[in-house]
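The protein record filed here.
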Amino acid sequence: VQLQASGGGLVEPGGSLRLSCTASGFSLDYYHISWFRQAPGKEREVVSCISSYDSATYYTDTVTGRFSISRDNVRNTVYLHMNSLNPEDSAVYYCATTDYWGQGTQVTVSS
């Protein structure tokens, strides 16, 4: 049973990335999924969530209008589409359910 986050990297300000959170060994269909991030010296914060039953979404204020979360139950994957990235978005991004955490993927926004 594993939850794996991927898709991070180095991007210039204003750029975009798509993070993926893929489950193996269990189905994400029945889980509420959250993306968190933690930057050095800062507390971990919830970035976005998507519900299991109606795919309702939540975004923290600082990413509203720039980030979009979606789920593909066929691929057993949840995505975080990140646009108009700025240096304040640099952090390790984690995906999680109520039972499982992914290992994190580094996002660095820098020129």
In short: The first strand starts at residue 2 and ends at 6. Residues 16 and 83 are 4 Å apart (CA to CA).
